[in-house]
Write a structure and sequence with these properties.
- The structure is a single chain.
- The chain has about 500 residues and is an alpha+beta fold.
- The chain contains ten helices and 29 strands.
- The protein folds into three domains: about 80 residues, Jelly Rolls, CATH 2.60.120; about 200 residues, P-loop containing nucleotide triphosphate hydrolases (Rossmann fold, 3-Layer(aba) Sandwich), CATH 3.40.50; about 110 residues, Beta Barrel (Elongation Factor Tu (Ef-tu), domain 3), CATH 2.40.30.
- The strands form eight sheets. Strands 13-12-11-14-10-15-16 form a seven-stranded mixed β-sheet, sandwiched between helices. Strands 19-28-27-26-29-20-25 form a seven-stranded mixed β-sheet. A four-stranded antiparallel β-sheet has the order 1-8-3-6, with no helix packed on it.
- The longest helix has 21 residues.
- About 40% of the residues are buried.
């Protein structure tokens, strides 16, 4: 006789956490029986079953103690209770942010540190705490292209949070295709910038330009929403001290006033010497949690592939039936981010802190009421937006593929860029110089947000016929400019 799955009870003392690692193809069901508990700052509801699929690494934390019960389709790779948590430190940090907010100061926090020290966990937890205790909505920004946060990997994102984040997905936020009308969670509509590369240093010119554009659009969002935005929290790649000029660019672009360095005191000391903050930058250190584990490349790749699959096929409670769109390769403009050599030469090392180029200083100008002031969040035009401008080397950002090959497109994930504000026919005319054409396209792509993604499920190079997978049926795609990302997906 089948009596159903066997549930195991776990008693977690106050200020402790239950740490779990699951294997691939496993299903873990979890319930909070009594007490209070949270995952990444999001509180669990009593007697509600949470289902976790695939390979995951997470922790259930509790301030007051709790009783959990779980059942798993396969034995857990690891599970134990730890008293070495960051709960007190994170709560104190959150209370400091809230005190500043009461005084009318908006916290703009940049979280830095080496790889696998818990930067994303801290970002997510602080955002969740702000949602619970403040009337203002936090803005969660991800500028680590490796992470699939609110979009597939290779993208830079910013999302204004209105409701709790989904604890059942390790990609932090559902995409715009899986969010609407799903369960108890409201959809997040992020700003997405297409970087297209996994490592930020593969094209620093493009990366820095997108940082500037993303910061401008975040400020536009804040101004358009009557300043109801709360803390801005920025998750970063594993920067080191050699990236200090890039860090300075991020600090200036986002007007950072709080720098949190996790798990590397030396980095904090060095940044204090390097950064020009005019005394307005509060620098804080935070020790690495003992619960942080080194993520193997295989685990990271599985997470990236999972986020792509979720975008096209949805999640368990909101499944999608993706649609195959048949078209011609000539219907679109294809570009690929340039991959640049970034290794330091001997002369670079000897020159030490010499400036990389003349484009570092930012000049801000006001463009009142122009088309560039369009805010994609509110769909209104702001009259007080100040846009930071630089002499970007647009020709170094992207490569235009006039005649894409099968090897360029097959199994590629594409970022779709809105093209309604650009005269494609005129721009692609043979009368336009190739460098000017590339610069105009790069400028357009960097100033626009990604409107969606497609996956090349088939391409016949001889006939030019293209098969694109998209989340839902449409008669035409929302843009004719495609950025070929480094992401590949094969069903």
């Amino acid at each position: 006789m089948d009596f159903g799955p066997t549930w195991t009870k776990i008693e977690v003392p106050a200020l402790n956490e239950w740490r779990v690692e699951t294997s691939k193809n496993s299903i873990l069901s979890l319930k909070l029986e009594s007490g209070t508990a949270e995952i990444f700052g999001t509180e669990l509801s009593k007697n509600l079953t949470y289902v976790f699929k695939e390979s995951l690494k997470f922790a259930v934390s509790t301030y007051h103690g709790c009783t959990l019960s779980y059942t798993a389709s396969t034995p857990l790779d690891l599970e134990y209770i730890s008293e070495e948590t960051m709960l007190k430190q994170l709560l104190n940090l959150h209370l400091s942010i809230e005190n500043l907010s009461v005084k009318g100061t908006q916290t703009r926090m940049l979280i830095m540190g080496p790889k696998d020290v818990g930067k994303s966990t801290i970002s997510r937890t602080l955002a969740a705490y702000t949602l619970k205790t403040s009337e203002k909505s936090p803005i969660l920004v991800n500028i680590d292209p490796r992470l699939p946060h609110f979009a597939i990997s290779t993208q830079l994102t910013a999302a204004k949070l209105y409701d709790l984040l989904d604890v059942e997905t390790s990609t932090i936020g559902e995409s715009s295709t899986t969010g609407p009308g799903t369960g108890i969670y409201k959809p997040q509509i992020p700003l997405v910038k297409s970087f297209g590369l996994e490592n930020y240093n593969e094209n620093l010119e493009l990366y820095k330009c997108l940082i500037s554009e993303l910061s401008y659009e975040v400020d536009s969002k804040i101004k358009a929403s009557s300043n109801d935005a709360g803390t801005i929290i920025i998750d970063t790649p594993p920067f080191n001290i050699s990236d200090w000029k890039l860090v300075q660019h991020i600090v200036d672009s986002f007007k950072i006033n709080t720098l949190l360095v996790v798990g590397n005191e030396r980095l904090l000391v060095d940044l204090r010497k390097k950064l020009n903050s005019s005394g307005t930058l509060n620098m804080i250190k935070l020790a690495r949690s003992s619960g942080c584990v080194d993520k193997e490349p295989k685990f990271e790749r599985e997470l990236q592939q999972r986020s792509i699959k979720q975008y096209f096929y949805g999640v368990e409670r909101a499944q999608l039936n993706p649609y195959t769109f048949h078209c011609s390769v000539k219907d679109f403009i294809f570009l690929r981010p340039k991959e640049q050599e970034t290794d330091m030469t001997f002369l670079d090392f000897m020159n030490g802190d010499a400036d990389d180029d003349d484009n570092y200083n930012i000049t801000a100008i006001k463009e009142e009421g122009s088309d560039d002031d369009y805010d994609p969040f509110s769909q209104t035009t702001s009259k007080k937006v100040v846009r930071a401008k630089q002499n970007w080397k647009y020709q170094n950002m992207l490569t235009l593929l006039d005649d894409p090959k099968e090897t360029d497109l097959t199994y590629a994930v594409l970022s779709i860029i809105d093209s309604k504000d650009i005269n494609i026919v005129k721009l692609m005319s043979s009368k336009i110089d190739a460098k000017e054409k590339l610069s105009e396209l790069a400028k357009h792509i960097t100033t626009k947000s990604v409107v969606g993604f497609s996956y090349v499920s088939g391409f016949d190079e001889k006939t030019g016929k293209l098969k694109l997978l998209i989340p839902s049926p449409v008669t035409s795609l929302p843009g004719s400019i495609m950025v070929i990302t480094q992401m590949r997906y094969q069903e």
